[in-house]
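// run 5 | inverse folding | seed 20
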């Protein structure tokens, strides 16, 4: 063997071993990664052992290593099949009915491997030719049977798959077929039919095609998602070779230039020190070079999220907020463009974009993407349908719906990566965390914009009213002053002191709860308390907004026909965990299974949620909350009854007043704004209904409201 052949053996071994190490480091618990690692190391070992017979002259030793090569070969077929069977999943599930025979066949193939060749015949050209024995036929059938079975499994999966998975399977299948064909020609057909081993050295080298195709699937289609690790592997390989070459060059130069009498130990020590000092700068240089080659802008997920959350906490103006978020996101992740498409009531209301054309993003076909429950739409993972054609038309690579709870706020649309690569798992994980936080921040910014507009409108109305009052009755002037004061206090509290910190608190709490660092029990309790406090602050902001809108008559009620029984049942599910925590039983007493009323669904949900929340909070532990319905004149009455501490008679008149909270023994630790029942009364009355309560101290309270029925429902009940 010459040095070229040695180099080929080394590179083949290095390529296979590298993919094995990368695979198992990425996810040691995944069976896809495990089988790929096993196959890679088997191929790496096969590449080395297959060459050993060529570098020995002893016929006995040569025959041993030929048989050892066959023993290693026995693992290739079964491992290929198992990898194809489990790919791309993490778990390995196979019935014992099939697993046991497969294990026995694989074991028998290994045991037959030493008997496939009975000896060696030397040829005139200095070559050697293995003498086949009868087990060779069984061995070949088993080996190629497993391999072909694996190919069949991959073909079946390929035909059923779409998007990225289809591309992954395609490249893996192509590499496997090409490698199998070339190995069969060089290591089986050439030996058994043409009786020559001249081409067997090609066999292991052909595994580079399989490894190369898998590496391409990794780099271009997120298969195992280890592109960054490949870049680092190349970087450190270059670093090692460069350092070694530099050291050899310096030693050679020193040997040639310095006299032979010079102390070699001293020279080598000085050279070693020189190499150590240059190692760091050389490492940084090579990392920059490999980064440019792979065009992989590295970023720390946690640091980038922190930076984005700080922007959301500092900015409340929607234009500045959007621009800073998009600039930071596209720069750090090396994206070509990005945009926030703001959507309200099923229509595009505004666009904040960076490098997109705003007119293009006004396409109403984007709106239906919010109707599905998908967390993201990635171009490579979409089937060849209308949505994918729309992505091509708009040059969009990814879309993340922005929702706060169930309310659609808008879309985050992102363009291709500047490198031309697809989004990595790191990118997608970061964006899936960022999207909900951005939705809250954008909602707050939009609320701030509306509050500003509302403030200007309110101020104008106050001025008009003040002028009118001056012309008529001076006593009405006090109302204008009170309204102006309410406006000033509300705008200050709701927009600046409350709206902005809520985003920051929720964002940092999310980071803490999802931190990789293990937190103490006390720290976790503090985080939960912080989260609860931010939720109360958010509730206060919303209540203040409702009050302000009520005062200015700006609140909108959109009455429609709704099934109130279905609505109540859905809300009860949401309170199951809260009631269970306090060991409170939730019961319903519906007299019918369906009832149509005239109401605003969103506002009615807020009222019911508020009353249920109070019934649970002010209840006794192991108490009971029941919700029931019955007909009244021209309407339906809903009763929510608790077994709590009740309301003292002297406080009944204050229950529905603003900022009113009844303090008594048993509820001192319960927090609240004192606005919930005031808002509930306001909502019910605007829906042409009425709300009232009855309460017995120390026994419990029943809150009731009546809503008008639809015309058809009224006729139906009057006929009974």
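// decoded
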């Amino acid at each position: 063997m010459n040095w070229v052949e040695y180099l080929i053996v080394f590179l083949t071994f290095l390529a296979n071993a590298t993919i094995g190490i990368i695979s198992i480091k990425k996810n040691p618990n995944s069976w896809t990664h495990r089988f790929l690692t096993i196959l890679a190391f088997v191929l790496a070992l096969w590449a080395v052992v297959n060459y050993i017979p060529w570098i020995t002259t002893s016929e006995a030793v040569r025959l041993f290593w030929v048989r050892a090569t066959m023993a290693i070969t026995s693992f290739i077929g079964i491992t290929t099949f198992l990898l194809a069977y489990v790919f791309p999943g993490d778990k390995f599930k196979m019935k014992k009915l099939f697993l046991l025979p497969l294990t026995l066949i694989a074991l028998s193939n290994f045991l037959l491997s030493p008997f496939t060749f009975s000896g060696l015949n030397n040829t005139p050209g200095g070559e050697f030719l293995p003498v086949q024995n009868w087990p060779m036929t069984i061995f070949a059938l088993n080996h190629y049977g497993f391999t072909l079975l694996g190919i069949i499994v991959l073909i079946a999966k390929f035909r059923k798959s779409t998007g990225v998975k289809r591309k992954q399977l395609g490249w893996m299948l192509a590499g496997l077929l090409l490698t199998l064909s070339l190995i069969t020609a060089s290591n089986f057909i050439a030996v058994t039919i043409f009786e020559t081993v001249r081409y067997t050295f090609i066999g292991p080298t052909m595994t580079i095609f399989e490894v190369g195709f898998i590496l391409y699937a990794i780099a271009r289609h997120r298969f195992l998602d280890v592109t960054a690790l490949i870049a680092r592997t190349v970087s450190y390989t270059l670093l090692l070779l460069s350092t070694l070459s530099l050291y050899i060059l310096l030693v050679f130069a020193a040997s040639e230039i310095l006299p032979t009498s010079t102390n070699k130990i001293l020279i080598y020590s000085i050279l070693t020190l020189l190499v150590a000092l240059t190692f760091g700068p050389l490492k940084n240089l090579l990392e920059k070079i490999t980064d440019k080659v792979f065009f992989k802008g590295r970023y720390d997920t946690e640091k980038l999220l922190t930076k984005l959350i700080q922007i959301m906490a500092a900015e409340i103006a929607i234009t500045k907020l959007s621009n800073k978020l998009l600039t930071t996101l596209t720069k750090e992740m090396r994206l070509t463009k990005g945009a926030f498409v703001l959507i309200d009531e099923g229509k595009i209301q505004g666009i904040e974009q960076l490098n997109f054309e705003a007119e293009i993003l006004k396409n109403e076909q984007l709106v239906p993407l919010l109707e599905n429950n998908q967390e993201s739409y990635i171009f490579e993972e979409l089937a060849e349908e209308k949505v994918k054609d729309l992505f091509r038309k708009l040059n969009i690579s990814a879309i993340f719906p922005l929702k706060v709870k169930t309310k659609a706020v808008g879309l985050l649309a992102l363009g291709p990566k500047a490198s031309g690569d697809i989004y990595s798992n790191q990118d997608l994980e970061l964006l899936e965390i960022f999207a909900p936080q951005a939705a809250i921040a954008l909602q707050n910014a939009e609320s701030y914009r509306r509050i500003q507009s509302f403030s200007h409108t309110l101020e104008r109305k106050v001025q008009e009213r003040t002028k009118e009052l001056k012309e008529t009755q001076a006593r009405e002037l006090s109302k204008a002053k009170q309204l102006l004061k309410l406006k000033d206090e509300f705008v200050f509290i709701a927009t600046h002191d409350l709206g902005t910190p809520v985003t920051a608190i929720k964002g940092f709490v999310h980071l803490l709860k999802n931190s990789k660092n293990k937190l103490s029990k006390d720290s976790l309790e503090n985080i939960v308390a912080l989260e609860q406090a931010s939720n109360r602050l958010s509730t206060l902001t919303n209540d203040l907004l409702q009050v302000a809108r009520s005062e200015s008559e700006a609140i909108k009620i959109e009455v429609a026909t709704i099934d109130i029984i279905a609505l109540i049942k859905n809300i009860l599910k949401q309170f199951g965990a809260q009631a269970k925590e306090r060991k409170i039983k939730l019961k319903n007493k519906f007299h019918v299974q369906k009832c149509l009323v005239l109401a605003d669904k969103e506002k009615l949900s807020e009222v019911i949620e508020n009353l249920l929340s109070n019934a649970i909070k002010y209840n006794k532990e192991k108490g009971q909350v029941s919700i029931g319905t019955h007909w009244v004149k021209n309407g339906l009455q809903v009763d929510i009854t608790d077994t709590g501490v009740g309301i003292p008679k002297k406080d009944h008149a204050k229950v529905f007043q603003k900022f009113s909270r009844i303090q008594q023994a048993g509820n001192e630790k319960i927090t609240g704004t004192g606005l919930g029942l005031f808002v509930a009364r306001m909502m019910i009355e605007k829906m042409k209904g009425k709300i009232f309560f009855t309460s017995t101290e120390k026994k419990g309270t029943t809150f009731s409201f009546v809503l008008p029925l639809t015309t058809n429902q009224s006729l139906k009940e009057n006929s009974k």
